[in-house]
């Protein structure tokens, strides 16, 4: 898998590219060729000694893809093969926005009904109306789906999606996940009831002056969340968590203060007496973009801070080999965590809706 994790854009490519598969129902096709001697460019002009084509699928045979547009919610639900009911996962990515499906497709390939949720929209006017209740509605849509076990739902979030996950688990009076997974996230950004996502970003806007550039003019954003506030009203009070929580942290995360946030959450939960609910995976040399394994490591790429603004190059961090190791190890442990808390004693789900 090192051949895939170490892939780079060809010389002369546009600066700041990030490899992400968009059409999950078709495979990622990889051409692997061996040449005489060591080469860094000019592959197309040379004759390969031997070549092979591999296909990497994100949807296992029988996995179904369902567009979700009900109740104002936009997302994609992936269902495993079989009659169900299946344990469910609400899957939320970070500040890049859009509808990102490949992790949800993989989760469905492992037996979970996973809904990739679009909650950050490029249209600024629409983005201002999306908030806490939108996420609650998405959770209930997943919960009420006929093939989903309504009492076996988890929240999974990356980056800002982790903040949303923690906020929903602590602040919502109606949404009660059975467990939560937070990747490269922080409890400093909060999303409270009757609050829009745009309002929750105010904390970072107020501290954007703390961001800095590296020697390649890539933005390092992690300092915008530092120092971690001591006042519990200025962060998600994880001492109120009532379900198991898995934190995944890269120690070379240059985008968010995930390490410091994890340390503070550990202390908060210990003081509250619920530290038995917390599991933390912390990886030396791993950056911010901890994704499902065996894809090319992205240390930096272009990013839009706000809709309509100019693109910048954001530094995510991580070294290729330790980052690849972190992705492989964390993915297996995330799947194990979800199975442990969602897949025991799944009860038949009776649903009157068609």
UniProtKB/TrEMBL annotation:
GO biological process: acyl-CoA metabolic process; fatty acid metabolic process
Catalytic machinery residues: 159 (charge relay system), 253 (charge relay system), 288 (charge relay system)
Single GO molecular function: fatty acyl-CoA hydrolase activity
Residues in Acyl-CoA thioester hydrolase/bile acid-CoA amino acid N-acetyltransferase domain copies: 1-70
Organism superkingdom: Eukaryota
Pfam families according to UniProt: BAAT_C (PF08840), Bile_Hydr_Trans (PF04775)
Domain called BAAT/Acyl-CoA thioester hydrolase C-terminal: residue spans: 132-342
Matches recorded under InterPro entries: AB_hydrolase_fold, Acyl-CoA_thioEstase_long-chain, BAAT_C, Thio_Ohase/aa_AcTrfase, Thio_Ohase/BAAT_N
Family statement drawn from the similarity comment of this UniProt entry: Belongs to the C/M/P thioester hydrolase family.
PANTHER family reported in the protein's UniProt record: ACYL-COA THIOESTERASE 17-RELATED, ACYL-COENZYME A THIOESTERASE-RELATED
The protein's name: Acyl-coenzyme A thioesterase 1-like
Organism field: Salmo trutta
């Amino acid at each position: 898998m090192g051949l895939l994790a170490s892939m780079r854009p060809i010389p002369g490519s546009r600066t700041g590219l990030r490899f992400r598969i968009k059409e999950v129902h078709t495979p990622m096709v990889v051409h692997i060729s061996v040449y005489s001697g060591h080469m860094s460019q000019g592959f197309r002009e040379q004759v390969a000694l031997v070549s092979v084509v591999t296909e990497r699928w994100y949807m296992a045979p029988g996995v179904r893809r369902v567009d979700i547009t009900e109740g104002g919610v936009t997302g994609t639900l992936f269902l495993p093969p079989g009659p169900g009911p299946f344990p469910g996962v609400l899957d939320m990515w970070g500040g890049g926005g859009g509808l990102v499906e490949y992790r949800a497709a993989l989760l469905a390939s492992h037996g979970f009904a996973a809904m990739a949720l679009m909650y950050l929209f490029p249209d600024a006017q629409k983005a201002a109306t999306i908030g806490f209740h939108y996420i609650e509605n998405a959770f209930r849509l997943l919960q009420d789906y006929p093939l989903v076990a309504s009492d076996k739902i988890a929240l999974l979030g990356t980056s800002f999606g982790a903040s949303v996950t923690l906020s929903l688990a602590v602040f919502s009076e109606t949404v009660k996940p059975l467990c939560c997974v937070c990747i490269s996230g922080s409890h400093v950004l909060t999303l409270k009831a009757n609050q829009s996502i745009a309002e929750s970003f105010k904390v970072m806007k107020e501290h954007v002056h703390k961001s800095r550039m590296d020697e390649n003019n890539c933005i390092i954003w992690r300092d915008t969340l530092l120092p971690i506030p001591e006042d519990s009203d200025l962060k998600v009070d994880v001492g109120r968590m009532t379900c198991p929580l898995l934190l995944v942290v890269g120690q070379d995360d240059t985008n968010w203060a995930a390490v410091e946030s994890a340390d503070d959450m550990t202390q908060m939960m210990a003081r509250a007496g619920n530290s038995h609910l917390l599991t933390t995976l912390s990886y030396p040399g791993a950056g911010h973009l901890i994704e499902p394994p065996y894809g090319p490591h992205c240390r930096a790429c272009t990013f839009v801070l706000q809709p309509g603004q100019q693109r910048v190059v954001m530094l995510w961090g991580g070294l290729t080999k330790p980052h690849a190791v972190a992705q492989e190890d964390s993915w297996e442990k995330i799947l194990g965590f979800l199975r442990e808390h969602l897949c025991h004693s799944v009860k038949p789900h009776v649903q009157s809706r068609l």
